[in-house]
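Colleagues,

Please find the record for the two-part complex below.
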Amino acid sequence: MAGPIDFYFDFSSPYGYVMSEKIDALAARAGREVRWHPILLGVVYKVTGGAPLPGLPLKGDYAKRDFPRTARFHDVSFKLPANFPIATQAAARAFYWLHDQDAALARRFAQAAYRAYFIDGTDISAPQAVVDVAQGLGVDGATLGSALADEAVKARLKAACETAIAAGVFGSPFIIIDGEPFWGVDRLPQIERWLERGSF
Amino acid sequence: MAGPIDFYFDFSSPYGYVMSEKIDALAARAGREVRWHPILLGVVYKVTGGAPLPGLPLKGDYAKRDFPRTARFHDVSFKLPANFPIATQAAARAFYWLHDQDAALARRFAQAAYRAYFIDGTDISAPQAVVDVAQGLGVDGATLGSALADEAVKARLKAACETAIAAGVFGSPFIIIDGEPFWGVDRLPQIERWLERGSF
């Protein structure tokens, strides 16, 4: 089997969400595994001087138009949540806590959390909303609820963000294949070609 | 004939250059005219708070890798010039001065100037280099050389930048079709679909 695909994303990123609906099928066709890595764009932006799209002059208005159009283009259900963007510490911590017990469950949780936010409009910045999503997958809510405030779990997410930045990650979605970086869901055609040919 | 395609670009923009090699053929297939509009990203960035890609932490390194890869992906010849990015006032002023006499000639000049910079590595920030490019198309060099320092020609470019910003343009390339904005050469698949279906 060829090497894994590293998929970095923030749970508040519309383009990350669209990628999350596409990357596993793409990888499966290429016989590759996907490793999902939620990160916090706020931490990344401290390094890059970036800022959330919606607040930027001109670019913000464009983004609000481009998010749903890009989702339609990829046949992905999408509705910009009333509360957007949001802090995603709770969702990302839940992911890593689950991941260290069951990677496949964490992957299902990530998809469910993204859909709760970008399809149902659930504000997943609230720890209770994150617990609810996980409970829907059979996770014990009380245990997860405590874990979200656990210092070790917080440190786990912090380390994941630092590792991502060290790998050159500065946005969401961000894909690394065979050491080659691809930023944005609009790099899907290049990712497909890379997976077909090894390089181009 | 369907409405025109407005194509905004900075002569120092690699992605703008790749778009310039693609947009006319795309438009022709759709029976549309392309209106080329060089702008100065430096003027736009004063409004948006943006900055040139190459100097940004992490993003700059990525961009230098993504420029040639994106050009290869689109089968466009490309070499990152030694002097990059550059000021493009001279090239943009030459374009508008030519345009107001002969729009088709201005279009040919734009393509020649882009290729001089991104294929041959000619530093087109120098007025003389711009004059040389235009002379290659049969333009009188001395007359153009004087025009580049003419206050009316400077004002023409300034007005073009202001008009672009008022239309929501904040990057290069930027395409507007039927009032719908598309930012980046990576929006080519969406542009193609828009041209085929009218909307999506």
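The radius of gyration of chain B is 16 Å.

Comments are welcome before we finalize the supplementary table.
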